[in-house]
Specification:
This protein is mainly alpha-helical. It has a domain of about 40 residues. Helix content is about 80%, strand content about 0%. It is elongated.
C-alpha cells in the first residue's frame, strides 16, 4: 500500500513540468511570492474545515427528538 501511495504522490508532483521549471527559475522574490500565494490559498480551506469540525464537535451529542 505504501509504495502505491508514494508512486501516486510522485506522479502528481510531476504533472506540470512547465510549472515546475518556471517555479525553479524564480529568484528569491518569486519564491517568496509563490510561498505567500500558497499560504493565502490554504487559509480559507483550513478555516472552513475548522469551522465544520467545531460545529460538528459541539453538536455531537444532540439528536433530534424522536416521535
Amino acid at each position: 500500500m505504501l509504495p502505491a501511495a508514494a508512486n501516486l504522490v510522485g506522479s502528481l508532483a510531476l504533472q506540470c513540468a512547465m510549472c515546475y521549471q518556471t517555479a525553479a527559475a524564480q529568484g528569491p522574490r518569486g519564491i517568496r511570492a509563490m510561498n505567500l500565494g500558497i499560504l493565502l490559498l490554504i487559509v480559507p480551506v483550513v478555516s472552513i474545515i475548522s469551522c465544520i469540525t467545531v460545529v460538528t464537535y459541539r453538536h455531537r451529542g444532540s439528536a433530534p427528538p424522536s416521535d
